[in-house]
Design goal:
The protein is α/β, with parallel strands linked by helices. 40% of the residues lie in helices and 19% in strands. It has one domain: Rossmann fold. Helix 1 crosses helix 8 and helix 5 runs parallel beside helix 6. The chain binds S-adenosylmethionine.
Length: 280
């Protein structure tokens, strides 16, 4: 009942969202690639427990985060650590699908500002191997032209995060259900919209609510044997994802909690769940 009321109230936002989205998409504002800040990380991020600090240090040593440490806010640095922590837990024991040429091609769908590009690249390059593999990673975001307080667009920031992550990391503004893409070894979706409520709260128009099409497109571009990795904010969203994927040629591999204490808002991550599916 509460869910229905919340959705009904959020529907009031739909017309405003539609107008604002159309305006920013037409304007396509850019001030050039944003400069990434350096914020001192100190000896230990203030919100970490001793155990969390040890885990953060271990992740930093395993995955090369030196460049990120120099060019990130504390929050972005922590969010990268949290993503590495989550992926390590979720994909433990799962062999990453690398193409015959030794390259892993991956797309991240709905990347937002792509602040976790470094963590995603480092995990895909280094997991399960002592010799780093080449990773070609592309972040795709349909709402890339929103303007931030510093006058840069989301795309300006996302391209900076992609550039920091590596030469083979790219960011593209586009609708994942419509952009042309070559076959991929792996697709990640970090919090896709599977409820109208979360999409409207985020500021998108209802016309972009197309979860079935999102997962159908993933099934089209992931090669047989490739992986789809999905993170959900809540159990309800995870169940909606599960139902959508069941209709498609994927087999469930594993699921895990993605709760993390490595970010200062750890309590808000308690319901997060991740799931991995293999393309048949
Ligand atoms: C909840 S946000 C998650 C952002 C990011 N993955 C993160 O974890 O910070 C979902 C994102 O998906 C984007 N999105 C929704 N539909 C999309 C589509 N069809 N193609 C590309 N991006 C889409 C939204 O604009 C939004 O930025």
């Amino acid at each position: 009942m509460a869910g229905i009321v919340k959705t009904a109230v959020s529907i009031l936002r739909a017309p405003g969202n539609a107008i604002a989205f159309r305006l920013r998409s037409r304007l396509r504002w850019s001030k050039g690639v944003a400069a990434l800040p350096h914020e001192d990380k100190g000896e230990r991020l203030g919100w970490l427990t001793c155990e969390g600090h040890a885990r953060a240090q271990d992740l930093e040593a395993r995955f090369d985060l030196a460049a990120l440490r120099q060019r990130s806010s504390r929050l972005v640095f922590a969010e990268n650590l949290a993503l590495l922590d989550s992926l390590s837990r979720l994909l433990e024991g799962t062999v990453l699908p690398v193409s015959e040429d030794g390259v892993l091609r991956a797309v991240d769908v709905g990347s937002g500002v792509f602040q976790y590009a470094t963590a995603l690249q480092r995990y895909l390059a280094g997991s399960g191997t002592t010799r780093l593999r080449r990773v070609v990673l592309r972040g795709i975001e349909v709402d890339g032209h929103g303007i931030y307080r510093d006058g840069h667009s989301r795309s300006d920031h996302a391209r900076a995060h992609a550039a920091l992550a590596g030469d083979d990391v790219h960011f593209q503004v586009g609708d994942f259900t419509a952009v042309r893409l070559p076959e991929q070894d792996l697709v990640t979706m970090w919090f896709p919209f599977v409820t109208r409520y979360s999409l409207l709260q985020w500021g998108l128009p209802l016309s972009l609510f197309a979860p079935r099409e999102l997962f159908q497109r993933a099934a089209q571009i992931v090669r047989p044997g490739g992986l789809l990795v999905v993170a959900s904010q809540t159990e309800i969203e995870a169940l909606a994802v599960e139902r959508l994927v069941q209709e498609l040629p994927f087999t469930h591999v594993t699921s895990a909690s993605l709760a993390t204490d490595l970010v200062p808002y750890g309590e808000r991550t308690l319901g997060r769940l991740g799931a991995v599916y293999r393309r048949n």
